[in-house]
Design a protein that fits this description.
The complex is a heterodimer of chains A (about 350) and B (about 575).
Chain A lengths: L10 E10 L2 E11 L4 E5 L6 H9 L6 E6 L2 E2 L10 E4 L11 H11 L4 H14 L15 H13 L5 E5 L7 H18 L2 E6 L2 H7 L2 E6 L2 E6 L1 H6 L4 H6 L4 E9 L4 E5 L4 E3 L8 E7 L4 E4 L9 E12 L3 E8 L2 E8 L12 E6 L5 E4 L1
Helix pairs in contact in A: 2-3, 2-4, 3-4
Chain B lengths: L1 H36 L11 H8 L1 H34 E2 L3 H7 L8 H12 L4 H10 L9 H25 L3 H9 L4 H30 L2 H5 L6 H12 L4 H25 L17 E2 L2 H30 L15 H9 L1 H31 L5 H10 L5 H12 L3 E2 L4 E2 L4 H25 L3 H9 L4 H12 L1 H15 L6 H4 L8 H9 L5 H43 L1
Helix pairs in contact in B: 1-12, 1-15, 1-16, 1-17, 2-12, 3-7, 3-9, 3-13, 5-7, 5-13, 7-9, 9-12, 11-12, 13-24, 14-24, 15-16, 15-18, 15-21, 15-23, 16-18, 18-21, 19-20, 21-24, 23-24
Classes of the chains: A alpha+beta (about 350), B mainly alpha (about 575).
Amino acid sequence: MTDIRPEAVGVTIEDVSLSFGTTQVLKGVSLTIEPGEFFTFLGPSGSGKSTLLRAIAGFGPVPGGRILIGGDDVTHLAPWHRNVGMVFQSYALWPHMTVRKNVAFGLEERKIPARDIRGRVDAALGLIGLLDLADRRPSQLSGGQQQRVALARTIVVEPRVLLLDEPLSNLDANLRIQMRREILELQRKLKLTTIFVTHDQEEANTTSDRIALLNDGVIQQVGSPMELYDNPANRFVADFLGTANLIDGRVEKGQDKITFQADDGTLIPLNGTGVEAGPGTAMFRPQDLTIRNPGEDADDGAVLPGRVQHREFLGSLIRYAIRVGDNVILVDDSHQAGRPVFDVGDDVALRLSVDQVRILAG
Amino acid sequence: MNSFSRSQWGAGGLALLIGLFLFVFLIVPVVKVVYVAFQDPNTGALTLINFVDFFNTSLFRESFLNSIYVAGGAVLLASLISIPLAYFTTRFNFGGAVLIQTLGIVPLIMPPFVGAVAMLLLFGENGSVNLLIDEWFGFTIPFMEGLNGVILVEAIHYFPFILINLSAALLNIDSAMEESAQNLGASGTRLFRRIVFPLAMPGYVAGASLVFLKVFDDLGTPLLLNINNMLAPQAYLRISSIGISDPMGYVISVILVVFSLFSLWVSFLALKNKDYATVQKGGGGLMKRDLRPWEKIGCYAVIILILLMVLSPHIGLALLSFGTVWSYSVLPDAYTFAHYGNVFRTATQYISNTLLYAGLAALIDVVLGTAIAYIVWRTGLIGRKWLDYIAMGAVAVPGVVLGIGYLRTFVEFNVPIIDKPLSSWWVIIVIALVIRRLPYALRACMAGLQQVSIMLEEAAENLGATKTRTVRRIVVPLMSGGIMAGFIISFATASVELSATIMLVSAESDAPLAYGIYEFMQSAAGRGPGAALGIVAVLIVGIATYISHRVIKRREKELAPGVAVAAQGV
């Protein structure tokens, strides 16, 4: 709200483990979130992403390991002493208070003088464009407006870290896109270290500086959205982000060339950089392949013969499912009016550019 | 189209019939009572003279103030009992929660007046507790002295209304409500005062105003404790001793109705626009914490103390029913089955009458309740909401008032064949019970119907079932849990109803259990058999409640997947 804001702080998570009864929800999670970063915990439901966020806010059982905010160990600190702002999935606006009262609450708890509270609440409501609704009750607001109030209520106390727990999941599709832009803009303006929890890869990709992808209480990979998409660390990451062809087999190192031999015998040449011989999974995306009539030559890359098993028209592209040996490979062919289309049962040749093939361990 | 409009006609005809029934047996008698209260007894002209007379009579002024004092006192005492219990169950993880839930049901299975005499013997001036206190400490406590006794008995009986409403309100608070306050820096008592308390307040007020209404209108308890200087007993005594032409009974009735409406209005205001059911998906209740050992001991001590208090009418009644002589002693002198023998030799007609009346009334109630629920939720009939409002309006009509209204209205209506006025035919007792218990049955049926997704009905119609067949094959089976619950609630409460029936019983042979207990308890010698009859009443209600609980649980289990799907559709 003011120009002089406290320095953005980082969050460090050291070997955090947490169980509910006998189920282990977090299994030794370690992470470093940089000051001012927009960081996302991405994962399917039950992956532990919300539990980790709540642990940072101080909710739920005290975890094993350590959580540091701006270098201070907060692992055993009560939620009300942490000064981290959390926006709840349900917004959790108090129905017995007006918008203004809701937003003022945190400042009152901080014993801010009343004359300052009014100004800061007005500033926060102005920031989200809801100043004229200050005297309404939460039940009189739309979902998007409630969302903004929840955001204002949190940032008005100038928290050290902003935590967002699936804040967009209760909004309809168009509003979701608008709100995620607004949240990102606000975050950039305030230079506030932000942790965002979502199960939606599009939300994560469009907003985040970096993503930590969680599954089953374990961090699968940390990196920028593009790094995760282009160089997934394992099958789960490859499959969770976008669509992936995953073919099991082994890498064979010959005299002069390296090839991937699928379990059904199909051979895929590799460009050979950084690949060890041994069992593995070949990963490539549907857009890494082109589809041709059999016999049309491929100057470089691999040619895989196959037969069209299924076809889906998706507007800008056509997605084919092609049977190649024992595997079914998905191929995206961009679509324009008049461009030839293959029918189910047609024999085709797939050309795969070898630079795009990634070998995933195990 | 043809069959569709025919089904609309069918629903319309049904709605008219129900409307007519409610008009004749609810609206007309109440309007009659109000009208007579404003009528000059001699000339028949409209006047306020009766009200002036009322407030000029010191006995009536005293009764009026006593009724308010007793109702207020009972709310206060009931709050003192229920607030800690509600707090324990919703805030802490501890095994006593089951005990507390039981506590919330036990008092309701015995009407307050049944235990009243037993309470005199336990807590009265020469009762067991005071004899012990006097022996040990040399003084006595006037638990049951005058109005205190009414307050104590009523509070012990009605506190579950506050407990249930308050617990529900607390459980409905999403943990995110509390967590967001903590996240913004609030904790401890400030958190409670600013977030938890205001969110739970509507539930508390709703429960408290209900207790106020119930106590204000109750006739049986003061009568059995021989406290006559309160409003409901005065109305009864005026009508039964002076006659149905005495205007004071009507004036009191109007006051009772006004206060009932006022209490309902307060509870309506408390809940209006404050749908604080804040639990979101995945949320659920306030955060609970484990108790430290000494806290656990404290909790259990409080609960056991309250449990003893709540069970004391039951214990006292059991002792009384098995005791030979119990007077100026801590316990009865000796024990015997003679009272039960006596009851089963001479008083079986009370039991069979009760089973007949309450069973019939409950049956009619669920039929009416199901029909009204369906008309309100599933048809587009104009004015359908009014059926609901009028039926629910019966809550605001105290039993005494309904009784007086029936006496006055139907005394001139001669039933053919049996050649008696309708007001002294046993069927009028059943009708009074139907009207009195309809709100309970209706609520249960409505809840049952709301669980049935309209999509399930549309699926049946899509497959060729007519409206009538859809109702029979899909709607009624799916809402049978609600219907069953409605039947049992109506049956259990109707079988111990006293205030309306005491005015309408015209012959001993037509009298139900509650009346029989009242009759027995009038004499010291009758207390034993009266208590035995009371135990029979408790058993009937208790067994009915238990069976309904089992039936509902089992149906819930059977229907669980279907209901879950239906709930998503709503």
